[in-house]
Amino acid sequence: MIKFEDIFKIDNKNEVKIKLNMNAGNSDEPALDFLLAESVRWIEMVAWKEKSPQNNYSDAKYVLAFAQYYPYGKEYYMFGGLYKIEKKLPEVFGKEGYSIYLQSEFEQYRKRLIIRLKKPVGQNYNIYYDTLIKYEPEIYEILPSARLGKFPGYSSVCLTHRQLQLIYKNDEPEWKNALSSVKGVYCITDTSNGQLYIGSAYGDYAGIWQRWEQYANVNNLTGGNKSFEDLKKSDSDRIINNFTYSILEIFDPKTSDEDIIHREEHWKKVFKTVEFGMNNARYK
Predict the structure, then answer these.
(1) Which long-range contacts (CB under 8 A, 24 or more apart) does 275-281 make?
(2) What is the mean pLDDT of residues 242-269?
(3) pTM tops 0.70, yes or no
(4) At 23, is the secondary structure helix, strand, or coil?
(5) Which domains does the chain have, with CATH numbers?
């Protein structure tokens, strides 16, 4: 076992706090997604300041920031960087109350190193270095690059758009092998309004993987869908921030295109996506 202290060797421990970011006050906004996407929301979370001293950095000069690594479980956290912190004056609370500056120390472990805590931290997410040691943290894994975890099975796939981008950016082998091996019917959900789009992946090349690659590409995002093209022109962030991707049915690669299209039409009727969803050019 590699101990936390073996990697994060700190001389002045009383000057360093640990922040274990979980979500932005909403379980649908996990800190991990913001970290992996290098979103400004990640900076906002690390720099956030509350009036309660236990949720502030007090007199600390640095913070080791982590994001809960939910693909593995609640006790796992991915390293997000060492930041120098400075209080903003006059003081502000309930918002970004610190200016933070990413440091070069431990940079090689950023978005790669995952720790595991043997004891739950509860609400103690902003603690001093020595306090964290009481939770018996250990270095669980050092990844070759940030990844989303193992492929969960076709029926359990539910990806945010940022997660979809991450999978394609890293060419994740488990995901690529699984999604390339099947054709299928899939569902895209706009979580901002609950509307659905039913699509299908057929043809002779790379199955669902090839189809979803178009959605993951920030220069595309639409997969050629007219309704998405209009949305991209007016509000591309809505696609990136709100679309999720799941699989309804999978088929052997030898299945005919006609059979898959037939099943796609079936699911459109089930969910009424032409009348009420995104399977039309009138989607806004």
Answers:
(1) 276/195, 277/195, 277/196, 277/197, 277/198, 278/188, 278/190, 278/195, 278/196, 278/197, 278/225, 278/227, 278/228, 279/197, 279/198, 279/227, 280/227, 281/226, 281/227, 281/230
(2) 95
(3) no
(4) strand
(5) 2-142 (no CATH), 154-271 (3.40.1440.10)
